[in-house]
Amino acid sequence: MFAIKSMSELVQHHITIQLKAYLSTTQTALFENWTDSLRPLYNLALGLLYEEQQRRWRTNQKFLKNYLDKSSLQTYLNEIENKPDIYPVEWHITKALPECDWLTKEENEVRKKDNTKSLACRTINRDGNFFTPIRPYWHLEEPQKLAKFKCFTNQWLISCNLLTNYHLQKLLNVNMKVRQSFISMNLMEAWKRYQKGDFRKLKFKSKRNPVISLCNKQTNRIKFDPEANNCQLLGKEFGLIEFRGLHNRHQGQIQPRNGSLTKKADGYYLNLVFQVEHKPIPDSDLQVGIDPGLVTLLTLSDGKCISNQRFLKENERHLTVLQKKLSRQTPGSKNWEKTKKALAKIHKQTADHRKYYNHKVSTHLVNKYGAIAIEDTKLTNMNKRPKAEKREDGKGYEHNGAKAKAGLNQSFHDAGLGQLRAFLESKANSYENRHIERVRANYTSQKCSRCGHTDSENRLTQASFHCLKCGLEMPADLNAAINIEQTAFGLDKS
After folding, report:
1. How high does pLDDT run on average in the chain?
2. What's the start-to-end Cα distance of the chain, in Å?
């Protein structure tokens, strides 16, 4: 059970306020220049982190055994040997790769002394026969520390010779504190979530996937003036950033701990993180189990349901018209750019409505219930597309319901179940007198909440539940929510 604690003392709490920023023409050009300059730095740091990950994986005997399996390598070679431009003809797993022309003698000597096993392949292309190493940063010591502490410094960037002169000169013009905050807040925080398994694999930045935010995590370098409605967040070079609407949402002279400037479809936004004091919410002895779904967003164990608003479906007709219009226009033209911006604004508006609704729902549940149990649904696995299956005659593929599954995946994304669960956990964990727990989803929809009998035939349809042993009949989502509550708080019937 959860513990009831005193609510007399004030509690430190972090809040993030998003404000519309109004940049000048000079600031807009500088923002575009800095974000374009930070793209190679992000890719360099991410490559170093993946190099560190590869070194850890190569110490695993199972990983090496997979690459040492000659049958799998031969199968791979047979599949791609008909490619005319480039294909591997010989694979090597060695302790020291052959010398490379693009490295100095000292670097080649270090390479020969490298004790970690490296995977390389001999390739043939139009230039001739040469070795291609899979790991681009094999010769650097402690790549993860370089990514964390040195990759944004001027001295290391000049001496590393990993960036072209053009990209290096552009990068040196960016404020070093902005570079440091960009790596520590944008990249390293995302990398930590990826390592924990809470985030997808990070992608390298490109023109189609650009850098869209600049940040500053150093409190003493942020000059904040709420009365004048401006903030110096990115140094003197960038100047004062004007904003509006702070007095309507927060009162008092408060210094932000960190902040970021982000580009979105309808303009620029300033995100400021404040540390404030507030009184804890009143104690509550109520406990609830929650079963998330699509027909109803949340089904509570006390019989209440929270509806799914389906914000994307409301704008689906307008989006279809604009997407058809975009497909008929010339890519890169002015009309094409206008239609693309209109599409982006609708998607942003939909995301804002969904976020606002999930905030309201999560705040209501945390204020009312002292203990919350929610089903630990694996959303990533639920959104996977079905595998393609070839026909027996080898001509084409069997029908696997991919189109229907794509519509179901869109409904999952429209509901925002992952965002809602994250809001619930964040708000509940910020109070000492609130408790939240995840419960495994195994058999919660097949188990009877009255007698504990578990059978797949208890769930006759998607909506109804009928126990074959005791005859209990109720909505299937309500039965699952009760099972989640019983499992979490020690009331299990099994």
Report:
1. 78
2. 19
pLDDT for res 456:
82
How distant, in Å, are the alpha carbons of 347, 425, 489 from that of 431? 33, 10, 19
- Indicate whether 329 pLDDT > 90: yes
pLDDT (0 to 100) of residue 226: 78
Burial string for 257-294 (b: 16+ CB within 10 Å, else e) reads ebbbbebbeeebbbbbebeeeeebbeebeebbbbbbbe
Q: Which residues contact 420 (CB under 8 A, 6 or more apart)?
A: 292, 297, 298, 358, 361, 362
Is the confidence at residue 118, as pLDDT, over 70?
no
Q: What is the pLDDT of residues 159-191, one digit of tens each?
A: 887 888 888 888 888 888 888 888 888 888 888
CA 35 to chain centre: 20
Q: What is residue 448's three-state secondary structure?
A: coil
Cα angle 305, 311, 312 (rounded to 5 degrees) comes to 130
Which residue's structure tokens are 């606002």? 356
Handedness of CA 364, 366, 368, 369 (dihedral sign): positive
pLDDT (average), residues 269-283:
81
**For residue 307, which of 292, 322, 289 has the smallest C-alpha distance?**
292
H or E element at residue 433:
none
β-pairing verdict for 371-376 and 287-292: parallel
Residue 245 has pLDDT above 80, yes or no: no
Residue 438: beta bridge partners?
Answer: 374
Phi and psi torsions of 341, nearest 5°: -65, -40
